[in-house]
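Today's session is about reading a structure prediction critically. Students often jump straight to the picture, but the first step is always the sequence itself: look for stretches that repeat, for charged clusters, for runs of hydrophobic residues. Only then move on to the predicted structure, which in these notes is written as discrete structure tokens rather than atom positions. Here is the chain we will use throughout the hour.
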Amino acid sequence: MNLDIPEGKDPIAYVWGEMVPGIGVAAANFSLAVYSHTTLGLREFEAARLRIAQINGCMFCMDWRTERDGQKVEEGFLDAVTQWRTTDTFDDRTRLAAEYAERYALDHHGLDEEFWSRMTAHYSQVEIAELSMCIGSWLAFGRLNHVLGLDAMCVLPKF
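Below is the predicted structure for this chain, in token form.
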């Protein structure tokens, strides 16, 4: 870990809740909101989330699987995300979610008209805005947790 955490304190709760309460609590609420208020399908949500987790190197995020109504993505989904370009287990929306997450994180200046044409053929404007906010949250907070060394002991915070 790259921060000093007082003995007996939960590292995530301490950093996100106590250390910088004016920012951390708001960040935690935003982070939780993308899970509790999403309208995206589980597969496209998880494809984008896991692609960001892979890029960030966040151990917790790669191990976590979002559950909705008792459902999670299938075993091997993380491997399919790694192979998003060629996997035969993704439909167009899921593949585009993984692609968008990767390009958002690594080449946002390269999101060209051809890409947006494909996105708008499969996603509504509202879904694109929502997916963009989700990806932004995962990129920022997964990277923050990894950089600070918190990802090895991460749980979703509840403030």
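Discussion point for the tutorial: The radius of gyration is 16 Å.
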